[in-house]
Amino acid sequence: MRVRVPGSSANLGPGFDVLALAVDRYYELSDEPLDGFEMVGPDDLAWTALKRTGSSFDRLWSRSELPIGRGMGSSAAACVGAAYLGFRRDGLEHHRARDEAFMVADEIEGHPDNAAASAYGGLNLAVGGRIHTDVPRLRPGQFYMWIPASVSFTASARAVLPEALDIVDVVAHAACCAAVYAGLLNGSWELIAGANGDQIHETARLSALPDSAEVVSQLRAAGHAAWLSGSGPSVGALIESGGENMRPEPAGDWVPLGVDTDGCVEVP
């Protein structure tokens, strides 16, 4: 059996731990060797997820288009894929296996946003333990990511988060989160600009990522929605038009992305 799982861009600015977009870059996992796949090492997070399903495999093979430590949901994709593989092997049908795989990945990750995008595809909103999945109104060439060579890991990025927040900032933050979500659903670029309104995590995280901070600043100054993707260092951007002609500095890969709407699936 072979499964394919999309990566993700989480937070979308103010949607800290609650919003994520699935991207058309993938992690694949197989229970048999395939061309281009490498054997999964004993310390890989996929084994942790698989163990929680109660299923067991002697060996697994994987390949990935998701760079590790760049804010593209590589760990969530690995957890979802491994858990889904285990549940499917034990006889669960697709939708049930996907739901169970999401719960395993959410528990391991400690936050549901990336796991939801990898499991279900599309635009995901996590509210009160429930996941709402929709298809955003984005055309090809409107979603980009700046991906540098450096890395950032979630545990260290969370360590710099503020311990207390001002109520005025919380209110403004909630408004921006609602705006970007609504904007993506109805195609309103005025509302999508809410992605620039985080008041919780980006200031602290960007202070430790000066190149990412510079790219975010450039994109916002040009009138675009931009955010630190997950814990970074990659930067996501929504650009109504002309993104193909942009090259943010400092240097990094400027990658056009699509939104995956399939989520975790079994592939031939």
Structure explained in plain terms:
By secondary structure, this protein is of the alpha+beta class. The protein has two domains: 2-135 and 259-267, Ribosomal Protein S5, domain 2 (2-Layer Sandwich); 143-256, GHMP kinase, C-terminal domain (Alpha-Beta Plaits, 2-Layer Sandwich), CATH 3.30.70.890. 35% of the residues lie in helices and 21% in strands. It is built from nine helices and eleven strands. The chain has helices at residues 45-51, 74-89, 94-109, 113-120, 154-158, 167-186, 189-192, 202-207, 210-221, and strands at 2-10, 19-30, 38-39, 61-64, 123-127, 130-134, 143-147, 225-228, 235-238, 253-256, 265-267. The strands form two sheets. Strands 1, 2, 3, 4, 5, 6 and 11 form a seven-stranded antiparallel sheet that branches. A four-stranded antiparallel sheet has the order 8-9-7-10. Helix 2 crosses helix 3. The longest helix is centred in the middle third of the chain and has 20 residues, at 167-186. The chain is globular. It starts with a strand and ends with a strand. The model has no long low-confidence stretch (mean pLDDT 93).
Write the layout of secondary structure elements.
Elements lengths: L1 E9 L8 E12 L7 E2 L5 H7 L9 E4 L9 H16 L4 H16 L3 H8 L2 E5 L2 E5 L8 E5 L6 H5 L8 H20 L2 H4 L9 H6 L2 H12 L3 E4 L6 E4 L14 E4 L8 E3 L1
Antiparallel strand pairs: 1-2, 1-11, 2-4, 2-5, 3-4, 5-6, 7-9, 7-10, 8-9
Helix pairs in contact: 1-2, 2-3, 2-4, 3-4
Q: What's the helix-strand series? A: EEEHEHHHEEEHHHHHEEEE
Backbone structural class = alpha+beta
* Count of helical regions: 9
Q: Radius of gyration, rounded?
A: 18 Å
Strand content: 15-25%
Q: Helix amount, in percent?
A: 25-40%
- CATH fold-level name of the largest domain: Ribosomal Protein S5, domain 2
- Coarse shape: globular
Distance between the termini: 8 Å
The description of the largest β-sheet is: 7 strands, antiparallel
Number of spatially distinct domains = 2
Mean pLDDT: 93
Broad CATH class of the largest domain? Alpha Beta
Task: Please name the CATH architecture of the largest domain.
Answer: 2-Layer Sandwich
Q: Unreliable segments (pLDDT under 50, ≥5 consecutive)?
A: none
Task: Let me know the number of strands.
Answer: 11
